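Tutorial handout. Part one gives the primary structure; part two gives the three-dimensional structure as tokens.
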Amino acid sequence: MTTIYDVAVIGLGAMGSAALAYLAGRGAKVIGIEAKYPAHALGSSHGDSRLIRLGYFEDPSYVPLLQRAYENWRSLETRLGADILTVTGVLQIGMPDSKIVSGTLKSSALHGLPHLVLDQKSMAERFPAFRLDEGEIGVFDPQGGYIRPEAAIMGYLKLAAADGAVMHFGERVTAVEPSDDGVTILSNEGRYHARKIVVATGAWIAELVPELRGMANPIRQVVAWYQPSDGFVAQPERMPCFLRDEGAEGSYFGFPVIGTDGVKIGRHAHFREAIDPDLENPPVNDADRALLDGFARKRLPSAASVRMKSTTCRYTMLPSEDFLIDAIPHQKNVVICSACSGHGFKFTSVVGEILADLALDGGTSLPVDVFKFERHVS
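Part two.
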């Protein structure tokens, strides 16, 4: 007799693992299928840290979802008895009219979020690692910090398994065939049936959702770690996580010394270099190193002094850089999630909840209008 699942989740990275856990926790009969292994290095959900912040410069409409995400992260920690989210505060640095600074202040004012505006002198006194140009300021979000991605993903998979989810790893879905009464899922290992599916395959999403071909574009991202010449200034209490607006040069992000490798730095979207998701990530090259080393010397000379290592990962960018979380309009039993564009991991704990709502209830009470399919695909 063929097993018919309530929901099948395809892709068990950040968003898929969270969705699977929420679905199983609500008593649904669910299966999760992942082409590789948990938290693998060819996706976007590995590495020791991801930023989380409340004063969201991208759009104030994200803030209510972030507030829910914080609640859900703390609930996950309680269930696991593990540390997932660490608060260091987050600094947003740039000219007062820069996108990051002005957007952070707008979101903070609209939602009544605690924040502190620091001029160049105050920054030097409180956060001496950072070098500012004349006229630049820092906006400190005291509730910001970082999330441990591998711990989060493995935690959600652990909860999903405990609540009865079936999980297949090393199995690649090759096609999905929606019909009026459900979806048939074909893989290199077998054939499955579900009433609904959630597609959260990251860089590979356009393979199963042809509407996203040419829109959900995988690009190469590079980050590097540096040892400080002054270990005092690079500690989290004196060097919080940060975002820095460099105007036409783009924006950079970074983390204090968290583990043995030191201070972590990257530029958002790096060089926007397209990649083939089926190939290994291209290696770090001289241009990559020169970019990040130059930023470190200019902006964090005592905190990011000697590069220790660098690595590549990938973003999957939508043209608007917003999220896409919705059912396909003409295939209501197919829910898709392309929720990253380089700033999605912090939302994992709430996106999983949203995906479970959409798959089981056909809608959600959480504010997701900005992530609707029609806003991205005409």
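Part three, for discussion. The chain is about 25% helix and 30% strand. The CA atoms of residues 224 and 310 lie 4 Å apart.
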